[in-house]
Amino acid sequence: MFTAIETGAAVLGAAGLAAGGYAYASLWPGSQIFGKTLIAPRKPGELALTFDDGPNPAWTPHLLDVMAAHRVQGTFFMLGKFAAAEPELVRRVAAAGHLVGCHSWDHPNLARTAKAAIEEQLTRSKDELEQILGQEVRFFRPPYGARRPYALTAARDLGMTPVTWNAMTNDWAERDAEKIAERLGRKIERLEKWWGRAANIVLHDGGHRMLGTDREPSVTAARLLLERYELTHLFVRLDAWA
């Protein structure tokens, strides 16, 4: 028979495994346990540049200039609260041919958010973006990549495809653009060589806490990636993979 200590240890071990499993399912971008998300297809040689937490009046215009100089279109996952403050910038992004997606209203962790609040976050931000753009918003990226089954269900019920990623580094904190680009380059090459996958790349043109966050390293890193891969790879919007 098990002793009380052994039984307690087993219970704690099971609880730890359950907690670890939940953390993986809710936070790991490649996890499909809580529901399917769009990541990237088996198309080595294709790259999707995606940008989170905008629009940012300080740096999104610079990023648009960089993308235009290379004749590349990307995907911008925008926060509803910033879109409401910068509607002309939202329209400028779309007019340049970029895809606009929803990134919630104000960037909560949806793995820890009540159902009613999830619905409000997604509905309010989607409605705001669609009112500004005059067109449907069809893609949603959960803040931090954090989700639970209901968050993905709510997005689909609103007609949005949930999106995560497979290539990201800490560009929101790193101040060296070359390091950001080099780390992403290594991820891109591993995805192609080991897995035969395209790369769904995350950079940040904004910061979720306030408008005007300095994103110069991220914008410069995007330029470096474009310069590195524009002759060898095809840059696509995410709707090319939907």
Low-confidence regions: 1-20
CATH topology descriptor of the largest domain: TIM Barrel
What's the count of strands? 8
Distance between the termini: 55 Å
Order of helices and strands: HEHEHHEHEHEEHEHE
User: Which architecture of the largest domain would the CATH scheme give at its second level?
Assistant: Alpha-Beta Barrel
Largest sheet entry: 6 strands, parallel
* Oligomeric state of the chains present here: single chain
Number of domains: 2
Radius of gyration: 19 Å
Helical segment count: 8
Class of the largest domain, according to the CATH hierarchy?
Answer: Alpha Beta
Structural class: alpha/beta
Q: What name goes with the CATH superfamily of the largest domain?
A: Glycoside hydrolase/deacetylase
Shape: globular
Task: Indicate the mean pLDDT.
Answer: 91
Query: Percent of residues in beta strands?
Result: 5-15%
Topology (elements, then pairings):
Blueprint: H1 4-27, E1 46-54, H2 60-69, E2 75-78, H3 80-85, H4 87-95, E3 99-102, H5 115-133, E4 139-140, H6 149-157, E5 161-162, E6 167-168, H7 177-195, E7 199-204, H8 216-229, E8 234-235
Parallel strand pairs: 1-2, 1-7, 1-8, 2-3, 4-5, 6-7
Key features of this structure:
two-stranded parallel ribbon, alpha/beta, single chain, about 240 residues, TIM Barrel, 2 domains
Structure description:
The chain folds into 2 domains: 1-33; 36-240, Glycoside hydrolase/deacetylase (TIM Barrel, Alpha-Beta Barrel). 45% of the residues lie in helices and 13% in strands. The chain has 8 helices and 8 strands, in the order H-E-H-E-H-H-E-H-E-H-E-E-H-E-H-E. Strands 1, 2, 3, 6, 7 and 8 form a 6-stranded parallel sheet that branches. Helix 6 links the parallel strand 4 and strand 5 (161-162). The longest helix is centred in the first third of the chain and has 24 residues, at 4-27. Mean pLDDT is 91; it is low at 1-20.
